[in-house]
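Methods — Computational structure assignment.
A single polypeptide chain was analysed. Its primary sequence is given first, followed by the predicted tertiary structure written as structure tokens.
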Amino acid sequence: MVAYGGGKDSAYAVAFVRAVHLALAERYGDTFQLRVVTMRHGGMPYQVMLNIDRTYQALHLYEDPRVDLFLVEGEQVRPFERDRPMPHRLIEFNRTDMLMSGHRSYGDGRATFCNACNLNVANSFGIAARHDGGVDLIITGDSPQEQRDYALWIRKLSREAGLKPADARMGFKGTLETLNGLAIAYFREIHGPDDVERIQERGVTSDVPATLRFFSIYDYTSYASGAHWRLLSDFLNFVFDEVAFNFTESDCANPLLMAHLRGLRTERVYQRTYREGVGQYVDFALELMRRKNFPEHLVEEMRLRYDTEEGIERTRRMATEYAETAFGLTTTQLVCMVYSPFAGGAAHLREFLAAEHPDLLMDEDAIRALLAGSDNRALAPRLERMSGLSVNDLRVLYDGALWSPRTDISDQARVLQRVMVTDPHQKVITVKRNSAGDEMVDRVAGR
């Protein structure tokens, strides 16, 4: 099995494994059954499906009976279909996780988009690996050292969150079991302990074959995209589309929204400029691209995209449109998220109302009463429209913790706290927190 997210690295991994697949058939007259699996999520534009389709055509995978091409959509495994519409339930699933995580973190890029998504990716591995009799081997481009480091980080995170990791001798099955414990704990923090159904459906599948193993192609080929550029662009017809290619991702539009949220928080909460906030994200993300050995011409392409006022305005329009089409989220709802006005006992409610909805300032006490459980049929629809969340979800936020870049949070959100503290994709920076230019320590994180 090969996981193909639709990006440049996994496209190369699929091509490499297909070459082995065909070489064995030519040499021995027989070969293994190849399973290629793509997990769909709300941040995956249609352009990614087109790249996957072009790769499959170039490698002649569609017509080979020794190849299975699957889509994983939540808990469902389906044959790959380029033009299959994104399921509404999947969009709502991703949207709710995004909003509930984002409202606990001021719209922090990694917390908003990546925490839940990474757990969903792990779940898709388990679902695809056990499907229809299961697989014996998962082939990946991650180096053995990366795999070991990730497994150790998961186990350490599990212990620090007060959980017991699975026996390390259980291999990948044990890693999935450990991740399942973390997923249940994380989503209990995010969605509240009483929403049992929502929590359970976000667990990580671990009932895979006990003999399942990983094999890395990392030591057998030059894996950096610059080393196989012609294979990607000329043979696989891979297109670095403006919507799908964002910073370190060539299969996901969410980093575009991460930069957008940073700009909105700086513009609205800090009363600075949108460009200043986006610039903070761009500086961080370009540095991350270089650390990940992106070809310099792609780094330069991304820099130029955000280099001028016209470019900033263009990407802002793209982000606004994508948030609406992919997740059904308006700018009003994104602005609400970067204030996090309802979480942690509505600690920032007054600041949010004064800046964004001054006509509701006189209703602050009534809003707090509604969040605490009282009924208010006049205010409830207004809060739901401005946040994109149900009143029940807003009450969960009100009763739960609010992460801050300046302070730690309580045991109410141990997993969220530990994930954010130990996140390798973050940078601590000094920012101006108001129009007067007063400074504070902040975090920028993303992809």
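Note: The chain has a mean pLDDT of 93.
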